[in-house]
Amino acid sequence: MNYPNYLVKVAAFFLLKGGKGVFMGIALLSSLTTYATSFSVDSIGLERRNGETYVLHQVDQGETLFSLSRQYSVSIQEIKDANPEKDVSSLSIGDTLRAPLFPDLSRGEKTLHTVQEGETLYRLAKQYEVTTDQIKTWNALGLEPLKINQLIVIYQPQPPVAAVDTTRYITHQVQEGETLYAIARAYQVPVATLMESNELETESIKLGQILAIREKNLVPIPEVKVEPTASTAPTPTRRISRSEALRRERERYERIRQEEEETIASYKKVSSNGFASVIEGKLNTKKYLALHRSAPVGTILRVRNEMNDMSIFVRVVGKLPDTGVNNKLEIRLTQSAYDKLGGINQRFPVEITYVE
Fold first, then answer.
1. Which of 155, 160, 105 minimizes the C-alpha distance to 125?
2. Rounded to whole angstroms, how far apart are CA atoms 109 and 154?
3. pLDDT beneath 50, residues of the chain
4. What is the DSSP letter of 17?
């Protein structure tokens, strides 16, 4: 097996450090077989923070926030979230930044488990249906036993992403540096339509991801049957030149493009301003969902926090009840959406945009 370069480097760092670092390095090397990646990164160590494990990166000459996001396969926002105490928009040589050690896993469902008396790695592995090696790797554990009240992160298995039906959809494979907005603009498709077609909760996309753009516009040509008669003679097949074939294809493409432009122009943009708050009660989900006054269920809304200019996309799952407590509210959000928008007050002003 080709071991992940960055995990080998981190393990070597702890081995050279000596002391308890030796145990950490040995544990990391012993658990490399449970996790593989194509990253090739430069790290100076690991840090445990709020149950997550982060790679520590020291900024070198010429590195930018964008280049680091590509190097560690994370978004710029994820780097900002991992370094709340730093102004990452202005980097200096020698600055130390955190990056999620397991970005794909940390974006999904996870559990932060507080170790109780008598619990062991084996017992936790059985409880959460994972392996002890996975727990060791996710938490950068050494050979020492678990301690009471120690915080352990457990990543839940994610359902496999359904393959895009290439016989039905025109598809696009995400290239280096591309964003969902740029792809939507290139294909002249609304961002909200791309998100709905690909069941995306946010605008975040990954390098190599296959996106469904639109359904293929295949109009079948009706077959005309001609009854044979005495005077019917076989018509020889006429072969057309390559230039003629290309001309016909350009005309067909132009006709399809014109139809799509007319469809896009028919969308009605709806925009409103009001106050947002959290959905009452404990709704245990990481998805960005909302209750809205007028948007139909299933609509994708763009919600912008007017206090910090942060924006996310949410899906409407119900109508906001017209009760006294909601009189001054335009929308209610799940706790995860509220947190992503950086909400700090019970209610805050937002701008809501969608198409119908």
1. 155
2. 9
3. 1-6, 8-9, 12-23, 26-27, 29-41, 218-233
4. H
What is the maximum alpha-carbon separation in the chain? 100
Domain spanning 269-355: CATH superfamily = RlpA-like domain (2.40.40.10)
- Domain extents in the chain: 5-155, 169-215, 269-355
Do 137 and 34 touch, CB atoms closer than 8 A? Answer: yes
Give the homologous superfamily in CATH for domain 169-215.
LysM domain (3.10.350.10)
Q: Per residue in 141-162, pLDDT tens?
A: 777 788 888 888 888 766 555 6
**Cα(first)–Cα(last) distance of the chain, in Å?**
51
Between helices 20-30 and 132-139, what is the axis angle to 10°?
Answer: 130
Amino acid at 319: K
For 131-169, give the DSSP string: -HHHHHHHHT--SSPP-TT-EEEEEPPPPPPPPP-TTTE
